[in-house]
């Protein structure tokens, strides 16, 4: 009989004398080969240096131009999904101006380190007309979006800067690019687990485990982006404590509902609030600079 495309000489995994069947041995060998190939392909990939942070990182796309191209290709679909660009020109300009202020502060910081932002000319901050979805997101290469629902929920310009600083953090840390590389790793390992199990339930279980691991990486990315939000807001003259208020806005907008944090790529706002407080204390151990905009 056959199952999932792999031959089984009997209905169980054991031979007539209680030993492991040849079918199981073959599946295990194939699974090991797939797993080894997947792991070696990921970890043998040379680390690509992030031009902004200076860190070596494993990415699916080594060229920043390819990230920019991918992001630009997704712009029409993402814009249409959220009702198009918001018709309020004043609000659209406001979002763009605050985003540019953050980027200018980043430029100054990088200049002191002898670095430059390879995505600088491609950054765009777009306010979307969606009046119901409280969200902001970034595409690879610098396309950043914020919904009208979130824009109208924030209470200060510092909170707006916190949203945009967080999304800038995703871009410059190349989170989407690194996630694509990790997904290739997880999918390969899940495939190996499915082959070893030899049936549909084993394949589904292996894929579920891979998804859980991937979600953990996603939550780490969110906290890393929050770290950038803290630093960029302060560099641009905003009070980073506005991000604490922003978390409270997000929690209120969610009504305290939603899936448990473990099952989500985003940490819950209460967790992020504690993290942000710790980041502020670490970045400014003595005191925050004076005259920051709330």
What do these coordinates show?
This protein has a domain at 48-178 and 217-283. The longest helix has 36 residues, at 200-235. A three-stranded mixed β-sheet has the order 5-7-6, with helices on both faces. Strands 1-2 form a two-stranded antiparallel sheet. Strands 3-4 form a two-stranded antiparallel ribbon. It has helices at residues 22-43, 64-81, 89-112, 148-151, 157-172, 175-197, 200-235, 242-254, 269-283, and strands at 2-3, 6-7, 48-49, 56-57, 124-128, 136-138, 143-147. By secondary structure, the chain is mainly alpha-helical.
First-residue to last-residue Cα separation: 69 Å
Shape verdict: globular
Give the oligomer, counting copies of the same chain as homo and different chains as hetero: single chain
- Series of secondary-structure elements, N-terminal to C-terminal: EEHEEHHEEEHHHHHH
- What is the tally of beta strands? 7
Q: Tell me the β content.
A: 5-15%
As laid out across the biggest beta sheet, the strand order is: 5-7-6
Give the count of helical stretches. 9
Helicity, as a percent range: 55-70%
| Poorly predicted parts | 1-11
Spatial extent as radius of gyration: 23 Å
> How much is the average pLDDT?
82
What structural class do the secondary elements suggest? mainly alpha
Q: Largest beta sheet, briefly?
A: 3 strands, mixed
């Amino acid at each position: 009989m056959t199952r999932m495309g792999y031959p089984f000489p009997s209905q169980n995994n054991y031979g007539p004398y209680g030993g492991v069947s040849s079918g199981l041995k073959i599946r295990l060998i194939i699974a090991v080969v797939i797993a080894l190939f997947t792991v070696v392909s990921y970890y043998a990939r040379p680390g690509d240096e992030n031009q902004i942070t200076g860190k070596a990182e494993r990415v699916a796309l080594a060229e920043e131009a390819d990230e920019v191209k991918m992001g630009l290709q997704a712009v029409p679909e993402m814009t249409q999904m959220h009702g198009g660009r918001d018709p309020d020109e004043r609000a659209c300009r406001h979002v763009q101006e605050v985003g540019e202020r953050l980027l200018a502060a980043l430029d100054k910081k990088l200049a002191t380190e002898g670095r430059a932002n390879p995505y600088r000319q491609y950054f765009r901050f777009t306010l979307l007309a969606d009046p119901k979805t409280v969200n902001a997101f970034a595409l690879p290469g610098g396309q950043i979006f914020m919904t009208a629902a979130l824009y109208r929920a924030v209470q200060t310009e510092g909170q707006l800067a916190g949203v945009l600083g967080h999304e800038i953090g995703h871009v410059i840390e190349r989170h989407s690019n690194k996630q694509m590389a990790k997904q290739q790793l997880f999918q390969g390992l899940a495939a190996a687990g499915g082959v070893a199990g030899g049936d549909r339930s084993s394949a589904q279980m292996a894929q579920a485990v891979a998804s859980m691991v991937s979600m953990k990486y996603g939550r780490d990315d969110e906290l890393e982006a929050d770290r950038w939000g803290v630093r960029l807001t302060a560099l641009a003259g905003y009070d980073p404590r506005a991000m604490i208020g922003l978390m409270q806005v997000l929690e209120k907008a969610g009504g305290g509902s939603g899936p448990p944090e473990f099952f989500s790529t985003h940490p819950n706002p209460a967790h992020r609030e504690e993290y942000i407080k710790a980041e502020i204390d670490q970045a400014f151990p003595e005191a925050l600079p004076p005259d920051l905009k709330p």
